Structures are given as structure tokens and as C-alpha cells.
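Q: My collaborator sent me two sequences in one message, no labels, and asked for predicted structures for both. Can we handle them in order? The first one she listed is below.
A: Yes, handling them in the order given. First sequence, followed by its C-alpha cells:
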Amino acid sequence: MTYLVGPGRANEHEEPHLVAGDGMLMAWHGDTELGRDSALAIARHLDKPRSLYETEVNGGHVWHASLSLRADEAQLSDEQWGQIASEFVHEMGFDDHEGTKAPCRWVAVRHGVSKNGNDHIHIAVNLVREDGTKAAIHNDYHRAQQVVRELEKRHGLQELESVRQERATRGYDPAEREAQARARARARHERERSSGEAKMPAWEALSGTDRRAKIAAELRTDQPRYFLALRVRGAAAASQDEGEFVRRMRRNGLLVRPRFADGRTDVVTGYSVAARPSYGERPIWYGGGQLGRDLALPRLRAEWPDTPTGAADAAKEWEAAYRGRRAVAPGRETQEIDPETWELQSQELLATVQQLEQVPVEDRETWVRVAKHSSGVLAAWSNATEQTPGHLAVAAEALSRSAQTYRQPQREPRVNMQAFAGTAMVVASAARGGQGIVAQVTMMKTMLRLSQSIYNANVADRQAQQAKMILDDTRYRLAAVRERLERVPVPTPAAQQAPAADLSGASEKALAARAHYLAGQGTPVSAALSSPVPNPLPPKRHRNEPTPHADRGVER
């Protein structure tokens, strides 16, 4: 209470006062600006049941929450905030529960907007009821979010979707970022020192200022989780079973580490991945669930068929990855896809998109699945064709946010989701040739049409922020890809049948010139050793990111 009525950490608190709470407190302090003395008096009143009955509550008897609006929303009146606070406390079960329980003492304080401009209130509750019993707070985080989502609808406020649709690439903990940056800075320093190019002191001998400067420089680089989520999501989307998923991750240049059941090497319960580190650095491992809820192994397994030999075959691939051995049974991931397959898969995807246009936009489970698989298709395409994450990667990441849910969808989808898996498999082979520009353009147009349907579903579900992100980060990016693909000349039969040139002994400059020439002749863009998606934006690439072909060392 003394903090709530004090100046605040940034001196942002103004005119602290009550907007709702215990009836006696509102009678005493409802019309006055609060100071330290009144805050202490309120605290003593709130605390009296616990003091009287000497009831102990594990974790503490004070329950606190803040209810906040977006900075761009209009501020509410004290009466509106008081009504919202009372309804929140009632829905959380802290009142008398319509006469069936003794109430908790509580108060709601308003002290102006936050330093970021958010209108908000604070609610403090004594979890010891008037009769000395304890209020139930089991699963209170989840219940509180459900309550405020309902309050947003009831009072016409902007609805927050980020609770249900948390970023697939989750936020970075400051301590995690600093630990990674420190490890990279030290490894880089020792590497430069051992090269002998200049006399440099050991890391431990550097001054604190010098070490902090090197760490700060590393903090300005991208974190690896974005890159890892992109690689894993693309591999999962393109795979028809768990074993293929393991092999595709390894081909994408990732270090893969399974988590075995206790005392077993044939039962895998989870996995971790890491980018291949530079010399002197240690790999930084992330579990699948840390990259995104949709990338946890149980959720991935729900999308693959359960066959009698599937689990055993997958366990062999996991063990091979764990021991650094070659893949046990290479499969589709090594095959080239011919133009006819591209055409057939494009037609199947188009048919699925047409079916989806008949699915009600209110069917959230279906649209969550669609967003997940669409993101996987774009991630697989990016992995195959973008040497540094570009338009396709950004579009995939934006779509993946619609696929994040606390609970796994239970109902069977209304359309055939296998079309997405087949599409991901096809586009994942783009770097190995075999596809035509026309087929890629057709596929991209279908993905644009699909993104419009996902956008409509988010609008109908009142997910305004996510809908805007799909419009800005997905449709804009895919349209840019389509335009660049359409500018690539279609290959002529003569160009397709031209004999391969002898490039032995050619210089790097000559190879680059030939690649440029082939692109101009309509040869598949991946054959020109560059991405079909020239990215005008600063590339989001981690310093240790392997190129799409730097994966062979995984299986040595």
C-alpha cells in the first residue's frame, strides 16, 4: 500500500485514491487522496483477519494484480474502473460468493497512468477471509486471464490476444541474453588472441570496462532462438513421420539432443536443439517447447501417423543424433522433386484452400491448425531458399503466432491438412532444383489467398493485433516474394536442355557471374546459389547460422 500511494519508481504516480474495495474502507477513504498514513491504516484494516486468526498462507497472504489498458485506449472514469474491479473480484471468488462464503478484504487503487501511458488500477486482496478460512487461488493465473478477457468484451475494451497467442519465438530473458553474450564475447576475444595478429591480454586480465564493452557489442546481435524456431518449424512441417523430422533437423545444420525416458534409450520424451557454435564457444540448447508451444514433441507427434514401426524407427534416428552418427535410414529429405510433383501439390493445396473458404471463421480450432501448418510451409521454403532469414522467414514467424495455444486442439480438422505437409515437403526441396518459376509463382499466389482467409478468421475472432500483423508482416512479405518471382524469366526448352558447363578451376567471381547469367536465363533461382527472395531489410541472422548447405558435418 505504501508503494501504491508513493511516488513510484519513475515518479509517475499522481493523485493515488481508491476506486473500489471493502465497504468500510470506501466509507473512510473513498473521497480522499491517499498518503503514507492513510496507506498504513488501510493496510492494517486489510490485514486484520489474518492477524486475528493467525492464519498462515503458503507463499504469502497478499494477492495482488494490476488491470491495465493499452496506451492508445481512452482512459476510463473512476466509476468504470470501480465497476470493473468489483466484477473482477467477484469472478475470482474473493467476495462472499453470493452469501455462501465469508468475504475477503480487498481494495482497488488508481494512481494515474504508467510511465508508458497505460491507464490502470491495482487490486490488493487479503487471502484470509473474515472467518479465518483461506481463499482458493488454484490456477489463479489462468482464471484471471479468462475473467479479464470476458471483462474486455463486457465493457467494450480492446481485447488482448497475446495471452492465447503468445509468440512462437518467445521473448528473451535478460539474464539469458547476457549469459549468451558473455560466452560469445569471451570466445571471440580468445580466438582473436590465439591468432597472434595482435598482442592481447587474456579475458581475465581485461578491465571491467573493456569486458562490458565487448559483451555489449555481442548483445546487439540477434539471439539464436529465432533462427532455431524457423529451422525446427520448417523441418516438422515437411516431415511425414518423427524419424524424418530428426533427419531434416540435422540436414538443416542443427545439433539435436533427445531426452530419453528414465533408464531407457528407446523411448524419447522430448528434445533440444542448438545452433552449431563457432570455435571456442559452447552450444546453447533450447527445448522444443521453449521455441514455441506448437514445437513441443507431444504436439508434433499428434500431427504424424501412429504406425507399429514408427516409434522404433524414430528412436534409432534420435540415438544416432545423440551419438553423432550418420542417419540410419535416409528418406524423402534426400530426394529431388520434379516439376510435375510441384504442379500436383500446387493443385492439392489450392483445393484445400478452397475448402477452407467454406469453413466458418468462428471455428478457431481449425484456423489455429491452418495457421500452424501455413507457418511451417513458409518456414520450410525459407530454410531452402533464403541464405539469411528474409521475407519468407518473417511471414512464417508472424503466422506462427496464431498457432500458439495453451491446450492442444482436440477436434479433428474439417479439411485435409496433409496438403500442407506435402507442400512443405515440396518447397523444402527448392534448393536442390527440379522446380520451375511458374510453379513457385502459382504456389505463392495460393499462399497469399490462404493468408487472406487466416486474416479474416483473426478479424472475426476480434484478434485485432494479430490480424494487423498478418496483414503487415505476412501478406506484404508474400506479395513482395511473388513480385520478385514474376520478374524471373520463364526458362525456354533450349535453356532447360543446355549441357552442363565445365566449371572446374573457375574463380569465385566467374561462378558468381555464371549464377547471375543462369538466373537471367530462367534457371531455377536456387541453382544460382542465391535466394529467390532478395531481402531489402537488414537480415535477421545469428552469427553462427549455417548456410542451407552447411549441414553435412552433422552426420560425420
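Q: And the one she listed second?
A: Here it is, processed independently of the first:
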Amino acid sequence: MSAREERHAPLTAPTALYDQARHLLGGSAGGIPPWRGYGLPRRTATGARPLSGEEAWSAVREAFSPLPGDAVTLQRRFARLGVEARHRHLVRSVVAELPLPAGERDAARTLGRRLVRTASTVPAVTAGIALLGRLGTLEDVACLRVLAVFRDLTGMAVDALDLLDRRSAAVVWLAVRARRDELQPLVHALWAGDRRAVRAELVSLPASPRFVNSAVARRIAEACQLSDLLDGDPDDTRLLARAGGLLVRMGQSRGDVSDLLAYRDGLRVYELVVSRAGRLPPTLDNAAMLLSLALDLSSGIGVLLDWPPGLRAALLEALGRLLAEPRWVSAGASAGDAEQRRRSDWIRRTGRQPFRSPAAPGGFRIEVVAGDPAHRAPIEARVLIDGRPVVPALFGRGPAHSPEYLLDDGRLRAGTEPREVQLAEANCTEGCCGALYVTIRRDAHQVVWENWRQTLPGSREPAPALPACRFEAAAYEAEIARAAADCSWSWRTRAVARLIKAGLVENPDLLSRWDAGRGWIGSGCDDPDTAVVTFWYVPGLASGRPERADRPLQFRWVITDDGTAPESQAAAALRRLAHEDPKSYARVCGGSRERAEELGFAWPDSL
């Protein structure tokens, strides 16, 4: 328990965790829990030997055999068997699998209610929450909402609330998990249940999306009961724009696919936003929002929603007609600063992409999608099979890989030798949250995608078995060639970087003559109006006698867009590499200070 929490703790702490949570809330400003909630009360160590994993599983199962008739009995069983707070996830899993015949459900529900209200130990309260997650009713919402303020119980309490009252679940989740100061006025209005204030704070949220990820966007929409707000004021264009922005954030590929798919009012809000979009003023922000929705509905996560026949196509058609109107085509034409100019250029390049004919049934298609630059969206080579995007449908923990990775390097091309290809990696890393792989091979006149594989370190759950997909080889190769040749999505410095990389792949001697090896090449992450070339320097590399190859020095060369054609800029960069040592104009960006000083290079202060 933190020092702040201890100041509010009673001199004689109540026995039940529920009573302790109520006491803590009563002493907080506005009755709202702090960000990250409260820590669980410390308990005196018993001195008993900790249970092993298998012992803990057996102990938790034994505690429920048979199902106890009262809360005190279960607490005593847990204490006798050595089940502690750290075993709460095991308790939850065992309760989820308990056989509960119809004749025992009322008794189990009653037990769950007694546990959450009277139990003083974490395993017992966890069991109560898990039982109410299976058998609870609206009567249990208030109690679960109180217990959710303990950070170690928040997840399971919110999961139970999600099944009973989505709004309450979302309000608690935002109060405990949404840390940004910009969100706090909305959270306070939601906690107080002030509908008028909720609407005012929702439309007043800052326009920047950087503090609203997919999970926060979903929970805001659920907590505000967004579809009801839209129904209540159909002429409120500020609310309409905010609703569209929340849908965009839920559908972002860097987010969790489950957020949009779990949003029960998703179809309704899509329909309301698109059907009323003509009432919006044709601003740059609104044009970018509507185009982002169209991209999602055509090849993104939005495709995976449970659409009634014809509705998604109708919404796309309506957006296509609206965005083709002159007032929307010219939106942002007078953009001022660099970010506005980049968004305007993105709309000009991408504006008609989502309204092309979709892949035919049984077809294979690749859509290279560049998202709104204001959102720092990744560039994806989205693979669609039978019109459905493969990566969010099968993986969902990160975006599809870039066109440079999948197309420029030829990874999707099929040969007689099977080749495993990584289609996507988790937003963090594969070592943390996994990746999606498929094996591609040529089989006579067909291309086969088979042996789908998901990696998820530490998971006990087997990956789902997925069927092989077969494509007519000529059509497959034609689609790969079309997607690789279509650079309409790209901006100038991205094209410059791709051309430089292609030149170095074709002629690696341009770098190796300077004892250098190619690194990452792309457009600048912080400044998209630059192309960045990185390389590794190892003395003696060109002669075949590298010195201390295990300690290379990394350099970064930044090429600023000069406004000329990408082909001209790339050719000039390659000519410079041919005649000038790049170490003389690039800057050190990696390696070690010691190695840099050994080789006579300055180590940057920023590293």
C-alpha cells in the first residue's frame, strides 16, 4: 500500500476487502480511485513453504471439491492448502472450468456474492469475482465496481462487469488505467454520471490522437454510450467528428484488434457517422478522419466486423461519393504548417484507394496502405484472402509488415522450395508478444500458403490450426508484380529511400569499398521529409580481413528532400557514395563510445 493510501487507511482496518475498498474511495477526491488504483493490503507472511506450480494447481482444485456452502469454509480451505494472493490467476482459471449443473447455480451465485462482500483474502475474493463473472446479474455490478479499484483485481473485475454492464466496466477501466491528464475531466464526469458534462467533455477532448490508443478509444465510446449520444443529438457535428475519430483509433493497426471487434455498438456508430458525414464541415481533420474510416472498411480491421449483407459496401460507396465532391477534394488545399501539408498530400495520394474494386471471392490481393501521417500510422502491405485482411484476422497484435520487407525483398514470391515468411510482428517484439508466419511454395500451376504459425512466448495455448490456401500461380504472380510496381501510396522521400536501397542491393560495392555494410534505409521517423541511410563500419571489411567485427560502429546519413524527382535524388546519393567516403558526411548513431574514440570519431551527446 502506498503512503497516500496508508494515510486514508482506517486505524482498525475492516476485515472484508470490499469494505476496505469502500473506505479508500470514501477518502479520495470525488470518490474516484487514483490512476493505477490501490494496492492490495499487505498480509503477514505465514512462513510456510511456497507451493510449486503443480502443487498450487492441485491445491486450488481441492479447495473447490466439493463446492463449499459458505465463504468462511472456502477461506479456511485456501489457508490450510497454502493458496495465497499470488495464486489468484489459478483460482480464476479453476472457477472458469468448474462444472456447475443447473441445480447448483443458485448456490454458486450466492457463494460468489458472499465472497465478494465478506471475504478478507485475495484468493477468496478472486473466487467470488470469477463466480459472478459466470453467474452474476445487474445486482452485482455495484460491488464489482468497488472491488475493481484494487489494481490487482481490476482486470478480472472489469472482465466480469463487461458481461453485466459495459458502461460500468468502461468507467472503472478508464478511472484506473487512463493516466493522461487530458482525459481526467471526462473521467470525472463519467464517474459522477453527469450525462451533460460527459457530452461536453467528450467533444472538448484535444484533437491529437496520440494519447488515445485503441483500448482507451473503445472504453471512452462504451463509457459515454456513444451511439445513444449520437441518437440524442443528430445535428451535433462536433460530436459526430469525435465519434468518427474514436472509430479510427479503435481500428488502428498498431492497436489490439479485439478493441474494435469487442465494441458492440461498432456497426451502429459506423452507420451513424457515415450516414451523417455530409453534415460535417469539409476541414482537413474531417477529410482525414473519413478517409481513414474508408481505408479501414476496405482492407483493415473494420472488414472483420459482423456486417449484414451489403451494408459495408454501401457505407464505402457513400464515403466514396462524398469524398469525391469538390468541397471535400479541396479540403486542406491551403494547408499551412508542415504536418498539415503532409496530411493534405496524403489525402491527395490516397483519396481514391479504398474505393477500388475489392478482391474477388477466392482471390488474393495486396493493398499497400499508408495511414494518416498525423497518427504516425505504419505503412502496411495488407494481404487479403477472399476479401478479408489476413493479419488482423489471424494475429491482431501488430500491423502487417511494410512493402519494403514483403514486396521489395521478394519474400512473397513463390518458388519450388518452401520458404517461411513472417507476415507480421507484435508491436513490442516477437520475443514479447509473438509473430505470424506462413510457408509459401509453388506447386505446379498453384501457389500454396500453408503451415501457418503463430509464436507467443510463454503461452500454454496451442496456436489455432489453419487450412492451407491455394491460388492460381499466374494470377498470384501478377498481383505481386502489380503491388510491387504501384508506388502511388508513397511520398517523395520514401521513394528516394526505396530507390537508394535498390541501388545498394544491386551494387553492394558502393558501401563495401568503404568498409561498410548496409543497415536500415527508409524515410525519417521524426521527419518524413528526409530519407535516412544507415550503415555499419568495420575496418578491413573490404579486404576480407575485418577488425573486431563484433564491435561495429553505426552511422546515419540524413538526406533532405530537395524537391526534385525521387529518381534524381536517389541517383545523386548513389553517385556520392561511389566517390566520397560516407563516414565523412554521415554521423555516428550506434556502437559504443569506446569504439568510436578508438577509430577517431566523435560520439554524439544524444546517445
